[in-house]
Amino acid sequence: MVWVMGIGLGLMNIATHATPTRKLHWLSSIFVGMLMCKIVYDLTGAISALLFKGYSKLSNKEKLEWNNRGFSTFHAIVVAAGSLYLLLASDLFVDTQDELFTTRSSTLSDTIIGVSLGYFLSDLAMILYNYPALGGVEYVLHHGLSMFAIISSLWSGEAQFYIFLVLFTESTTPFVNLRWHLDVAGLKNSKFYIYNGVALFFGWLVARIMLFMFFFYHMIIHFDQVKKVFSLGFYSLITIPPVLAVMNAFWFWKIARGMIKTLRKAQHSH
């Protein structure tokens, strides 16, 4: 009965927060995110055709993924920079006695989250339409969980601090995409490929392994505030991040194996 009352109270809080003006702003931000993906997708193809001679020799499937990774990289840079600013440079989430940090949001934070949601919707649509060319079940699961958490936070205005911690992990995406681009371009044996692989390893270690450790530590020491998040958001906070953390750990293991294999191959070649 208490659980049901908690859900009812949470829905009342969401209804209060989700004003018509905010809804219009959210929809506009989501549309901007989707439009951004379309524009960068087309620009990636056009610029690549001019600057990279091998682009014309790629198969249609490779061109599709090449361009898709273009807007994936652009989104990652935008949201990682925005997240870093909101988490460190702004005073939005500074812990004070006046207001719970879990209930804080701003026009800028809503905009960044909305744009990111537009990206995830666009990318997931492409993944499903071209399945499994752009990714398998793990990508669908990752995007689905991310979108659920983002929508809950945007709609309620709560727990945005933790959303931006997770969004900052997108800072590793450019290295992942560059690795794929170099491989397809036939530069897998180049020094740049090796340097990028090492950067990806350490970047992933910091942004997706150590940062998640901080995420859980922060939740534990601020649990008195976390437990006041509306019911669905609270249960999302204690279930979705652990799943993402396990996925990140699995991918880290694969990245580490790939880096060791590449370094050994480069050492033997000399």
Structure described in brief:
The chain is 80% helix and 0% strand. The chain is mainly alpha-helical.
Structure description:
The structure is a single chain. By secondary structure, the protein is mainly alpha-helical. The protein is 80% helix and 0% strand. The protein contains ten helices and no strands. It has helices spanning 2-17, 20-51, 60-89, 107-129, 137-156, 160-168, 173-184, 191-221, 223-226, 231-269. α3 runs antiparallel to α4 (107-129) and α5 crosses α10 (231-269).
Range of strand content: under 5%
- Poorly predicted ranges (pLDDT <50, ≥5 residues)? 1-9
Task: Work out the radius of gyration.
Answer: 20 Å
Helix content: over 70%
Q: Shape, please?
A: globular
How many DSSP E strands?
0
- Element order, helices and strands? HHHHHHHHHH
- Distance from first to last alpha carbon: 69 Å
Total helices: the number is 10
Average residue pLDDT: 92
Q: Helix- and strand-based class?
A: mainly alpha
Largest sheet: none
